[in-house]
Every structure is written in structure tokens, then in C-alpha cells.
């Protein structure tokens, strides 16, 4: 009996050593762990939060229904995310886009057709041509940027020496054109044109594709045929929840990593409660959070300076729940563009069966910074006012209001992604994926294709898995 009791105790004791210690149980960390485990490696995944999924999170609506408060959409060319979802039997459904879209600009309210040649870009008379020309130019420039080494583009230095704003001032000459390009830009980066390097913006456009399809600005902003085309049944976090369930006890929650030491041919990864030992570590945090871990010995100057220079965007995702999607009855898709602060962009975010009705809005960039400092009650009133201006007075009376401010999350600190101001890609871009001894780097910010997206996170997990299996 004593032997059995000892064996049980030994079995129950959590493992503290493995071939690879993965830091972070978002899509990147879980994908890396899956690949390594499939190849027979032992793995421990350390996750700071008491849940998996990182920047994806489902909110419970009751009755078995959920809505996503983090990353949610998936679209064509996001092949690796779709493949992972398929492995886990998570299905997709199309984002609701039937009916007219709404534009409210400078006090005038109009509807427009989403199946027109410019898709989701609203027909502002003094801006549409200007915006279309600017986007054409951007796509042509982006086509010259190699996604795995943007710093080698012929005009890399010239483009990395200016912000997107500088380029926009010279290339979008009308107020309407500027408004349209800025709207698309902030919906993609959750930052202002003045914050972001032109080269980084072009790289991000180039990254919106795959090995067979060149990346374009349109694929970033489009619903049909673009990054907002579909959603996951049961919410995007389900992918991480299922992947983590398969990994079982290898995933340790509530374990914020504070220090990674390398010595004597192994790594020691220390959380608040315990130390874990492995032959390699994989860090999947956005660069700025990776820079908050203590490394012994210290990392190189180049690597540390990279992590000093990749800030996160600012976004508050807001949603109002109604008994039914009343806008559908009015012939509206639930998609609005406008200049009514604080929400300039909305979608219909109802579950697949349309019940309950949910409107989603984004408070992005500077608006996110300003409105993030207000009270929930102030934000709620502002958001519902935006929704009511776009969709009518019924929008003022939701049954529930949900919001998630990602910059306020200690283990994310901003969204959607870490972006690069001028000078960073050309001087430090090479450091994104360069291993530091036994420490390897993953996370969507290290991806070529679909950098910043769930697909990029999955690709980075696969890449780091291959890196370790090749050399481990
Ligand atoms: C509001 C919002 C909307 C978005 N919309 C979309 C979308 O529609 N489509 C899309 O494709 N993408 C979208 N994204 C982006 C997408 O969610 C991310 O690109 C992707 O989830 C990143 O995965 P990751 O594994 O690289 O990083 P993360 O998900 O950030 O994972 C990192 C993990 O590390 C953990 N961690 C942090 N610090 C520590 C520490 N010290 N020790 C241990 N663990 C730590 C974190 O808790 C987290 O779980 C959106 C993001 C947000 C927030």
C-alpha cells in the first residue's frame, strides 16, 4: 500500500523538467507545443493567466452561446490557422454582411452597397478616387517588400525613415481620401499613421497573403475575400481551449515567468512559484512583454534594444447585445463606417443563428488612449451614441454591454499587435527571430505572413517547432 501511495504522490507531483519549456499559452505557444509533442519531445507550457488563448477570449452569453472579445476573424490565405482549426474540428461561419452598409460622415447619414467595386470602402465623393489611387500605390510598394526580410527591400531605408503619416500627407490630397485611408489604417494597426513606420505598414500589407497570393491592403480590410470573412463556431478561443486540453497537464496556468537563466547546457525558467528546467525555452510573448523578463546572462544589446522599440497598439473592443439583430430588419448589414466618436467602425457580431443580436465596435488608436481613461459608464454612453447614430435609436437599449480594453491587460498591454515606428525594422528586424543561445522566439510578431494575426501566431509556433526539431 505504501508503494502505491508513493507512486500516486509521485504521479501527482507536477513535472518540472522537459525538453522544451514554452512561455505563453496563446496560439503560438500551444502550436509550438503541439508540434514538439507530436515529434516525441517533452514539453511544459507556462502561462501567466488562469486561462489559455492569450489575445483570443470568449465571453459567455449563457445558453451555450459565446461572443469573442479578442481576435476573432479568419479569412482566405490564413492557411495555417484554418489547418489547425480543422485538426481540432472547429468550423467556421461567414461574417454577417447582408444588406446595406452605413456611412456617417460630417453629419450626413447614407447607406451604400458592399458588393460595389470598392467593397467596404464607403463612397465619399471627394475622397473615393483619391483613396483608391493611394491604395493602389501602397499595394505596388508592398509588392517589393519580402515578408521574411523586409529590411532587404530596395527602398527599405527610405521607407523606414518616415511614418505612414508623412507618406499620407504627400499622397492623399483630399480630406475624404485621408479619412478613408486613415479609417482602414487604424482598423488594422489600432495606432495612428504618425506612430508607424511606412516600411512596417508596407510589410504588414505584404504579409496579408501566402506563398501563392501576394499580400494587399484590400485583403487586410475586406470582409468578403479578406481578413474579416469568417468566424469560428463556438468562438476563436475554442481552438486554444481544445489544443490545451489535448496537451493536458503539460500546460501550467497562473505561472507568470519572471526569469530565464541559461547555464551548463540547459535553461531554468522561473515563475512566482517554481522553477522549470529544459534543454530549450520558447518565448511567445509580444516583444515588449518578452523584454520584461529577466535573462541570465543578459541578452545582447541588439535584442534588448529591439524589445525597447516595439510598442503595442491601443484598442477597446465594445459590444452591445440586443434581443434580436434589429438592423437586419431595416435591410442593414450592421457594418458602419463613420466619424462619430468614439466608434468609427462596426460589424454585426451575432452568433451564427442570429440570436441574440450583437453589434461590435472598435475604439482604436488615439481614441482608444483618450476613451480608455474614461469611466465604463462614460464609454458605454459614448459607444451607444455612436451605435444609435449609425443604426437608429433602438441601439441605445441593449440588454447587455461588453467591453475589453486590451492595453489594460497586464499580460497583453495593448493590441492588436506590436508595431514598429521608423528605424526599427531596418536596424533591429533581424533580431525578431534570432535565437539567444537556448532561447527561441515565437509569437505573431515574429511571423512573416499574417504578422499580427492568429494565423501569424500559428505560423510562428510551427516555425519555432521546426527550428527546435531540426537542431534539438
Ligand atoms: C481585440 C482584438 C481583436 C483582434 N482581431 C483579430 C482578428 O479578427 N483576426 C486575427 O487573426 N487576429 C486578431 N487579433 C490578433 C490576434 O488575437 C493575435 O495576433 C494572436 O492571438 C496572438 O497570438 P500569440 O500566441 O502570438 O500571442 P498571445 O495571444 O498574446 O499569447 C501570449 C501568451 O503569453 C502569456 N504571457 C504574457 N506574459 C507572460 C509571462 N511573463 N509568463 C507566462 N506567460 C505570459 C499571455 O497571457 C498570453 O496567453 C486581435 C486581437 C485583439 C486583442
Automatic annotation (TrEMBL):
Keyword Signal attached: yes
Keyword Oxidoreductase: yes
Alphabetized PROSITE patterns for the sequence: TAT (PS51318)
Pfam families: Amino_oxidase
InterPro entries listed in its UniProt record: Amino_oxidase, FAD/NAD-bd_sf, Flavin_amine_oxidase, Flavin_MAO, TAT_signal
Essential cofactor(s): FAD
Assigned keywords, A-Z: Oxidoreductase, Signal
Domain Amine oxidase intervals: 27-468
Family note: Belongs to the flavin monoamine oxidase family.
Record protein name field: Flavin monoamine oxidase family protein
Organism of provenance: Paraconexibacter antarcticus
Amino acid at each position: 500500500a505504501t508503494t502505491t501511495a508513493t507512486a500516486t504522490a509521485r504521479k501527482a507531483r507536477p513535472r518540472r523538467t522537459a525538453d522544451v519549456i514554452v512561455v505563453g499559452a496563446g496560439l503560438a505557444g500551444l502550436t509550438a507545443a503541439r508540434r514538439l509533442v507530436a515529434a516525441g519531445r517533452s514539453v511544459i507550457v507556462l502561462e501567466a493567466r488562469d486561462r489559455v488563448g492569450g489575445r483570443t477570449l470568449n465571453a459567455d452569453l449563457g445558453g451555450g452561446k459565446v461572443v469573442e472579445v479578442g481576435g476573432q476573424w479568419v479569412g482566405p490565405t490564413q492557411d495555417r490557422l484554418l489547418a489547425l482549426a480543422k485538426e481540432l474540428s472547429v468550423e467556421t461561419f461567414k461574417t454577417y454582411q447582408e444588406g446595406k452598409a452605413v456611412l456617417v460622415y460630417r453629419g450626413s447619414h447614407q447607406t451604400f452597397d458592399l458588393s460595389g467595386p470598392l467593397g467596404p470602402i464607403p463612397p465619399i465623393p471627394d475622397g473615393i478616387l483619391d483613396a483608391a489611387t493611394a491604395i493602389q500605390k501602397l499595394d505596388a510598394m508592398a509588392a517589393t517588400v519580402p515578408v521574411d526580410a523586409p529590411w532587404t527591400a530596395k527602398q527599405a531605408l527610405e521607407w523606414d525613415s518616415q511614418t505612414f503619416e508623412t507618406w499620407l500627407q504627400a499622397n492623399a490630397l483630399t480630406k475624404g481620401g485621408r479619412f478613408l485611408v486613415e479609417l482602414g489604417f487604424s482598423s488594422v494597426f489600432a495606432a495612428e499613421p504618425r506612430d508607424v513606420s511606412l516600411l512596417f505598414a508596407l510589410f504588414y500589407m505584404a504579409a496579408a497573403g501566402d506563398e501563392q497570393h501576394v499580400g494587399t491592403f484590400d485583403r487586410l480590410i475586406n470582409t468578403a475575400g479578406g481578413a474579416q470573412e469568417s468566424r469560428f463556431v463556438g468562438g476563436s478561443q475554442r481552438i486554444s481551449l481544445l489544443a490545451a486540453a489535448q496537451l493536458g497537464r503539460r500546460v501550467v496556468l497562473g505561472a507568470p515567468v519572471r526569469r530565464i537563466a541559461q547555464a551548463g547546457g540547459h535553461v531554468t525558467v522561473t515563475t512566482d512559484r517554481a522553477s522549470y528546467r529544459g534543454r530549450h525555452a520558447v518565448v511567445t510573448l509580444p516583444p515588449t512583454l518578452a523584454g520584461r523578463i529577466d535573462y541570465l546572462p543578459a541578452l545582447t544589446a541588439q535584442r534588448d534594444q529591439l524589445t525597447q522599440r516595439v510598442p503595442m497598439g491601443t484598442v477597446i473592443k465594445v459590444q452591445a447585445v440586443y434581443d434580436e439583430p434589429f438592423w437586419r430588419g431595416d435591410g442593414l448589414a450592421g457594418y458602419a463606417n463613420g466619424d462619430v466618436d468614439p466608434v468609427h467602425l462596426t460589424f454585426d457580431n451575432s452568433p451564427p443563428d442570429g440570436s441574440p443580436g450583437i453589434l461590435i465596435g472598435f475604439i482604436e488608436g488615439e481614441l482608444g488612449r483618450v476613451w480608455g481613461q474614461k469611466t465604463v459608464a462614460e464609454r458605454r454612453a459614448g459607444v451607444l451614441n455612436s451605435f444609435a447614430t449609425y443604426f437608429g435609436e433602438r441601439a441605445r437599449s441593449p440588454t447587455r454591454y461588453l467591453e475589453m480594453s486590451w492595453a489594460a491587460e497586464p499580460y497583453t498591454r495593448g493590441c492588436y499587435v506590436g508595431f514598429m515606428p521608423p528605424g526599427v525594422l531596418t536596424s533591429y528586424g533581424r533580431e525578431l527571430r534570432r535565437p539567444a543561445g537556448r532561447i527561441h522566439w515565437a509569437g505573431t510578431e515574429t511571423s512573416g505572413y499574417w504578422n499580427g494575426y492568429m494565423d501569424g501566431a500559428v505560423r510562428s509556433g510551427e516555425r519555432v517547432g521546426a527550428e527546435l526539431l531540426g537542431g534539438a
